[in-house]
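Data deposition worksheet. Section B asks for the primary sequence of the deposited chain exactly as it was used as input, without tags or linkers unless they were present during the calculation. Section C holds the resulting structure in token form. Section D is free text for depositor observations; keep each observation to a single sentence. Incomplete worksheets are returned to the depositor.
Section A, Depositor: J.P.
Section B:
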Amino acid sequence: MKKRTTLLVIAVLVVANLLAIAGPIGAQDDAPTLLVWADDTRAAAIQEIGEGFAEEYGVAIEVQELPFGDIRDQFKVAAPAGEGPDIIIGAHDWLGELVVNGLLEPIDLGDAAGDFTDPAITAFTYEGELYGLPYATENVAFFYNPELVEAAPESWEDVRAISEALVEAGDAEYGYLLQEGDPYHFFGIQTAYGGYVFGLGDDGYDASDVGIDSDGAIEALGWLDAMVEDGLTPAGLDYDSMHALFESGDGAMMITGPWALGRIQESGVAYAIADIPGEGQPFLGAQGFMVSAFSEDALLASIFLTDFLATEDAMTAIFESGDRPSAYVSVLEGIDDEDVAAFGSAGANALPMPAIPEMSAVWTAWGDAVTLVFQQQVEADEAFTNAAEQVRAAIAGEE
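Section C:
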């Protein structure tokens, strides 16, 4: 019944489109074409899926390949000029800018929203409206060396205890590794203690509720302060030096993302991937399809997403074209790659990276506070209290 209704809707839209082009007495053989901007990783899969849509519904799908990092900026210029695509793929944290500037059309998934993971749907929801059909998620997870650590620690107190034992026995130079001044990778520790960045409600993040100085956030930073002070976590690490210590076996545990798998595997070090200890919630990044508010065929574009892409077959094809956990529940549950599945598990309770404009006011003050604690210059409560004051002042200045 749904397919029959979809065919009827598309038929009406196609006829209307042709009449608009040719006039009521003209003749046109050209059916509507939906233009999709996609990156090189997913372009071929989308083109193949589009061929099935064209065959079944008579609406052509044209895929134009662009570097992922260029899509947003080019879309902002092309869409209002009427020269942009009908659909783009992109990251959920683009929403704040694109929605505020009126560039995206809301999407109604109806009951099909339940086929996607909750964090992915939440990620593409802005001020109560869904603006994207998610296809993949990305988050960090907890890595440990199983030759040094017998089993994944269940809490950050366990991480400390394991670190103490390893360093005391001389089995590793350090227990836990973290990049200095890196709040993104620290966030999983912060949330494990009940800390947060912004309050999150049904309508999304609330910029008036800043949680950098919440009790849990300060307690988490105090845990890090003690780890550095006691020589269990080294100060001054950047991304490469952190990985070098882990890959050499001189560091036993760290948090990192799927982008690091290649170098870790090439190093030959033993590794295992687990959820964030203490039920910590990492940030989640989601990628998906978004419909241009300037599309002349926005309804057709939405039908392509909701009735054709939001299926297990299509989502499987898109998953197989990349290396990130699927946002589609049945595809995610069927992943047989242990590493990808482990990242999916670690992200099951993830919190979407805030897409609100106010997030830009957070990173510097938050990161500086973590750096000051790494350098043992201030206590945790002072560092995060000052950072939260800076964030609130910056937000107030933007309004």
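Section D:
The domain at 141-281+356-398 is CATH 3.40.190.10 (D-Maltodextrin-Binding Protein; domain 2).
DSSP finds 16 helices and 15 strands in the chain.
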